[in-house]
Write a structure and sequence with these properties.
Layout lengths: L1 H12 L4 E10 L9 E4 L5 E3 L4 H17 L4 E6 L3 H6 L6 E9 L10 H17 L3 E6 L11 E4 L5 E4 L8 H4 L11 E3 L2 E6 L4 E5 L3 H12 L3 E6 L15 E4 L2 H11 L5 E5 L4 H11 L6 E4 L3 H13 L4 H4 L15 H18 L18
Parallel strand pairs: 11-12, 11-14, 12-13, 14-15
Antiparallel strand pairs: 1-2, 1-5, 2-3, 4-5, 6-7, 6-10, 7-8, 9-10
Helix pairs in contact: 1-4, 6-11, 7-8, 8-9
Length: 372
């Protein structure tokens, strides 16, 4: 979404016309879910996708026509068990509702649409860049006395941050705002679609070796903010971690104690992938009791049990250790470093997107099995 908004705002600043298209509600099986976005430009080019096929093609054609006619925003609904499904093999019985909202060019300023939209998207970008999340509420049916297509942007605290048009603000629109701390999925209530942009996850990788490097590369591609900590400068370097937001070099315990005071919270995921047993134990001692949304440690089950045994002897409660993902990553028969990294990042994505740190099919080592 960050790159998408950058392109949209660039078009606004350059006075170019375009149309903002988004999936705002789905039912059943669909090629894209609510939150997918696409920009359409007058020359027919596009950025993003709503799922492809003839549904996307019709949305694009309608968007092009709306730009030409300077039409108002609208919401279209497509059923994928009719001609749309047959044409592209999308016989899944689903339903998709799409928002089409033309952005006027600089020559259409008198339409009184360009300035509110410009302010709306700038505020949207500001909230996204801060990484704290936000919620967009889109009116998709006239059930609360507000025209279809009107949008309202809410801050992480649930305060109104921006809107695409002036007019009434019914109290009903606040009733179903879900706290972002619960990592809600898109939902619709009483003719309003709620599209949460969840807080960005900071991924703290303790250990700058081969696995840490491979995980950092993949995690950055799927929108994690990567931090790396290692006590060796030659490993925790910008050359090895070009996409990292922060690189920390120095004593592991010292850095972790400082991070615990300032930065580790439910939007922080922590991976322990150091070069040895002692460093893994040192890192887990600090990280396991924290409020981090995810803590995982690499290693064999035997190594993990030995570390748990030591940590319990040092006063770490068994129930604290049972929240640790160890061995970390999904079981996919990984052999190589890239395969291990894929299994780890897949688990991180699942935890982020499903809103839980307990995933089906996981058999972590139980701290209760450790001798006390």
């Amino acid at each position: 979404m960050r790159e998408f908004l950058k392109e949209l705002l660039a078009a606004l600043e350059q006075g170019r016309e375009c149309a903002y298209c988004a999936v705002v509600e789905t039912r059943g099986s669909t090629p894209q879910k609510a939150g997918a976005v696409m920009l359409v430009f007058p020359d027919g080019s596009q950025r993003g996708t709503l799922g492809g096929g003839c549904v996307e093609a019709e949305v694009k054609q309608r968007a092009l026509g709306m730009m030409t006619a300077e039409g108002p925003e609208e919401v279209l609904t497509f059923c994928l068990d009719d001609n749309y499904g047959w044409d592209d093999g999308l016989i899944c019985g689903g339903r998709m509702s799409m928002l089409l909202d033309p952005v006027p060019s600089v020559h259409h300023d008198q339409s009184e649409r360009r300035q509110p939209l410009s302010e709306y998207y700038r505020r949207f970008q500001d909230l996204i860049e801060k990484g704290q999340g936000c919620t967009e509420a889109v009116v998709i049916r006239e059930e609360i006395g507000v025209p279809v297509g009107h949008r309202f942007l809410f801050s992480p605290e649930g305060r109104l941050a921006a809107r695409t048009r002036n007019g009434p603000l019914p109290s009903e629109i606040f009733h179903n705002l879900a706290p972002l701390s619960n990592r809600p999925c898109p939902a619709s209530h009483h003719g309003i679609a709620y599209l949460p942009i969840l807080p960005r996850i900071t991924l703290l990788i303790v250990g700058g070796g081969h696995v840490g490097q491979a995980v950092a590369r993949l995690a950055a591609e799927v929108d994690f903010d990567v931090w790396v900590l290692d006590d060796r400068e030659r490993y925790a370097s910008r050359e090895r971690f070009p996409t990292a937001e922060r690189i920390l070099v120095g004593d592991i315990s010292t850095h972790l104690r400082e991070l615990l005071l300032r930065d580790i919270n439910s939007s922080t995921y922590c991976l322990v992938v150091t070069r040895g047993h002692a460093h893994d134990e040192e890192a887990l001692y600090h990280l396991a009791p924290t409020a981090a949304g995810y803590v995982g440690m690499i290693g064999s089950k035997r190594k993990i049990k030995l570390i748990y045994e030591d940590l319990i002897a040092k006063g770490i409660a068994p129930e604290v250790l049972e929240k640790v993902h160890a061995p970390l990553g999904f079981e996919i028969g990984s052999q190589t470093v890239p395969e291990i990294a894929i299994s780890i990042v897949a688990e991180l994505i699942a935890c982020r997107n499903l809103g839980t740190t307990r995933l089906p099919g996981r058999t972590p080592v139980k701290a209760g099995n450790v001798r006390t």
